[in-house]
Design goal:
- The strands form 4 sheets. A 7-stranded parallel β-sheet has the order 3-2-1-4-5-7-11, with helices on both faces. It has a two-stranded parallel ribbon with strand order 6-13. It has a two-stranded parallel ribbon with strand order 8-10.
- The chain is globular, with a radius of gyration of 19 Å.
- The protein contains 11 helices and 13 strands.
- About 45% of the residues are buried.
- The chain is α/β, with parallel strands linked by helices.
Length: about 350
């Protein structure tokens, strides 16, 4: 990387939950000379040494190689979660758009590609113990999100074979939350008309305890630090990123002072499927199926190879996020607009 003017980093999906944290962190690092954020809509927010380009990865009109020219690293975060009823649309952005990013990295001779994979890329796995990065990444085929993340893992296998000079890093984070992402994530998964004020302990006398609903969470800023460490290191390969402890009904019940009540998977799935079928809930029942099967991740490699560790516990992350939902928290980008409802 250049040492005279600092490194030049390009970030796709720079205005979303992860992108805003990565851009902010990179812009504050003395070894970074400039950050170029790519997003569909240029935000009313511009940290120091940051410039923006309006880019839609689902369109072939943009010359991505030109956007990447002279970059020391590309951090690829762009992802579309919706529309969940039309997976061809998300495939066009997430899979075909990502492949265009990979090809442009090679064409522009960018030496480092850091790609946002996910725990969702993993095949079904254990909930009692954690797995490392060697666990199979075939996803859960019924869920578009998992199917797309797993497909890109195979695409990167081919990319690494064909372009050995490019250092490829695959980040596989758990569910990522921060206060500023509360409104965006409520809209993506709960729907536009779910009031954030409902995230109050006094309104939740009991909590559904669904078999298999045991997952990991991580503060988005902690994930951003891992991305920055990967950019500036020589590490390559996959890295699990997650906070502790694992999140289940018992932990949430203690946080919300709510009593866990056992609910069969079939009953929970039927309710979600009905709401999704009526377009009342954006999150699909297929994603619910996948979440129940996701393995817990061991993050030893991130600690030893990157020197990374989360600064927030999962409990702290969720408390911050729930408070953000109540307040309608957001940020100064189009995807992250803050609203209590709507």
């Amino acid at each position: 990387m250049s040492t005279s003017t600092g490194s030049r980093i390009v970030v796709t999906g720079a205005t979303g939950n992860v992108g805003t944290s990565v851009v902010r962190l990179l812009s504050e690092e003395p070894e970074v000379g400039s950050v170029r954020g790519l997003a569909r809509r240029i935000p009313d927010w511009s940290p120091a040494r940051t410039e923006w380009s309006a880019v839609d990865l689902s369109s072939q009109r943009t010359d991505l190689a030109e956007e990447f020219a002279g970059a020391d690293a590309v951090v690829h975060l762009a992802w579309a979660f919706q529309p969940t009823h039309d997976p061809a649309v998300t495939w066009r952005t997430n899979v075909l758009g990502s492949i265009r990013v990979f090809e442009a990295v090679a064409a522009a001779k960018v030496p480092t590609l850091v790609h946002a994979s996910s725990v969702g890329a993993y095949s079904p796995g254990p909930k009692e113990h954690a797995v490392d990065e060697s666990w199979p990444t075939h996803g859960w085929p019924d869920a578009a999100y998992c199917r797309e993340k797993a497909y890109l893992e195979r695409a990167l296998d081919t990319f690494e074979r064909d372009h050995p000079a490019v250092r490829v890093v695959r980040m596989r984070p758990a569910f990522l939350f921060k206060r500023e992402s509360a409104s965006e994530q409520r809209r993506i998964f709960g729907g536009r008309f779910l009031p954030g004020q409902l995230a109050r302990p006094d309104l939740l006398p009991f909590l559904p305890d669904i078999p298999g609903l045991r997952v990991q969470a991580l503060h988005t800023d902690d994930a951003a630090r891992a991305y920055a460490l990967a950019v500036h290191s020589d590490a390559r390969g996959a890295f699990n990123l997650a906070g502790e402890p694992p999140v289940d009904a018992e932990l949430l019940g203690g946080m919300l002072d709510a009593r866990p009540v056992r609910l069969p998977r079939t009953a929970a799935r039927s309710a979600i499927a009905a709401a999704w079928g009526l377009h009342l809930l954006p999150a699909s029942p297929h994603l619910f199926d996948a979440v129940l099967r996701l393995p817990l991740m061991d993050c030893t490699r991130a600690r030893t190879a990157l020197g990374w560790h989360p600064e927030h516990t999962a409990t702290e992350v969720l408390a911050e996020f729930l408070h953000g939902m109540q307040q309608g928290a957001g940020a100064r980008t189009e995807p992250m607009k803050g609203r209590k409802v709507g």
